[in-house]
Design goal:
By secondary structure, the chain is mostly beta strands. The chain has two domains: 79 residues, Glycoprotein, Type 4 Pilin, CATH 3.30.700; 70 residues, OB fold (Dihydrolipoamide Acetyltransferase, E2P). The chain is 3% helix and 55% strand. It is built from one helix and 16 strands. The strands form three sheets. Strands 1-2-3-4-5-6-7-8 form an eight-stranded antiparallel β-barrel. About 8% of the residues have low confidence.
Length: 173
Amino acid sequence: MRYELTEGKDTFKVEIHEVSPGLYDVSVDGAAPVRVDAHSSRGGLYSVLIGHRQFEGGIDHGKDGVLGVHVGTSSFDFKAVDARRALLQGRPAGPTSGKQVLVAQMPGKIVKIHVKVGQEVKPDQPVLVIEAMKMENELRSAVSGIVTEVAATEGAAVEMNAKLLVIEPPAGE
């Protein structure tokens, strides 16, 4: 997965390749990849091994796509600025009106479904939570409409591009 992230006035191009569950090759700004071993530990924290150095940290999903990353005693606020911004904010990239078919942007596990068939939703309303790459991502509706299909099940694993749910405009729109 590729991300373009900002932290303050700095912009970073980050590429992450999952080697196996919890093991990633991470490259920043085209540098040689670094092997990162990351696993969730107690209380929502992560234990991260980079080379021979171990760190503990956490991630907070803030407003407007800001990710608060805490490593040891240091904190950073990252914001995605490319198409991945939508994923990190939990919003699909694309139109903000009409029919919305929400699909999994990567393999993961459905943690929580906030809506049911027939329910009315508004833009930016949380609709479900998916865990992917050891992070929980709250997906939000991009449109106003009615949930017409929920294809996901809490606790189920989903593959990339699996249909999760469908939101259609209200009748007459």
